[in-house]
Amino acid sequence: MDGRKRRWRQHKIDRREELVDGTLAAVRARGSNAGMDEIAAEIGVSKTVLYRYFSDKNDLVHATMQRFIETTLMPRVYGAISLDADEYQLVRSALAEYVGTVDEDPEVYRFIMGNGSADQSSLAEFEKLFAEVVCAVITDRAKDRGVATEGAALASYVLVGGIQLATHWWTTNKSLSREDVIDYLTMLAWSAIEGMARAGGSPAAFNAQQHVLPAPETPAQD
Questions:
Q1: If phi over 0 gives left and psi between -120 and 50 gives alpha, with beta otherwise, what is residue 83?
Q2: What pLDDT is attached to residue 117?
Q3: What are the DSSP calls for 3-72, one per residue?
Q4: What's the rounded Cα separation, in Å, for the pair 134 and 136?
Q5: Dihedral angle of Cα 26, 32, 37, 38, to the nearest 10 degrees
Q6: Is the pLDDT score of 2 beyond 90?
Q7: What CA–CA distance (Å, rounded) separates 110 from 31?
Q8: The pTM is what?
Q9: How far apart are CA 103 and CA 109, in angstroms?
Q10: Phi, psi of 218 (to 5 degrees)
Q11: What is the DSSP code (8-state) at residue 217?
Q12: Angle, vertex CA 18, rays to CA 13 and CA 19, nearest 5
């Protein structure tokens, strides 16, 4: 009996994964507003089958979000952050991968994030994971330069939260090109990181600095 239960449990896990993969394909084919009927039809099963493995659409969105984050988004971000490159290039590469992933898979992104049924627990889990990765990189690079790292976790959450919110806004307001978004996000993120490094990671040192907006540097005239 125990062996049969284990096999049945594994079968359910495997079948859920197959249906999640089918859901991703269905959303890419039919759009982010696809309902359970359309998803089932695209996969080639009845809606009853979906409800056998998922309690409701939110459960399916939850599983789809986790799969997208684990197999598509985070591997690309990890790859960028793991590059043997200078700090500026790491920042730009990670942002380019994040924005690029969203831009290249817009229907899936809207399905899991933009249709009002986004799973907040999975989103929070992703943001925590992303922030922890960023924090680890900041801490490692800062220690090499004698920069204090007590605020690294806070800074990481600020950066990740801002990037996620800005990218989400961009998916519904394409007033900027993909390269423009990457440029602006890089400028903002790098300025924050550079400012922390300039102050040695110390709020006291930062507060002691003069805070005057500089005049913009104009390109040299030929």
A1: beta
A2: 52
A3: HHHHHHHHHHHHHHHHHHHHHHHHHHHH-TT--HHHHHHHHTS-HHHHHHH-SSHHHHHHHHHHHHIIII
A4: 5
A5: -50
A6: no
A7: 9
A8: 0.85
A9: 9
A10: -95, 140
A11: P
A12: 100
Distance CA 36, CA 41 (A): 8
- What's the whole-number average pLDDT of the chain? 90
Which token pair is 18? 């197959």
**Tens digits of residue pLDDT in 7-59:** 777 778 889 999 999 999 999 999 999 999 999 999 999 999 999 999 998 88
Residue 21's identity, in one-letter code, is D
Read off the pLDDT of residues 116-125 as tens digits, 9 standing for 90 and up. 555 577 678 7
Query: Residue 123, exposed/middle/buried by CB under 10 A (0-12, 13-18, 19+)?
Result: middle
Structure tokens at 45: 């099963």
Q: What are phi and psi of 62, to 5 degrees?
A: -55, -50
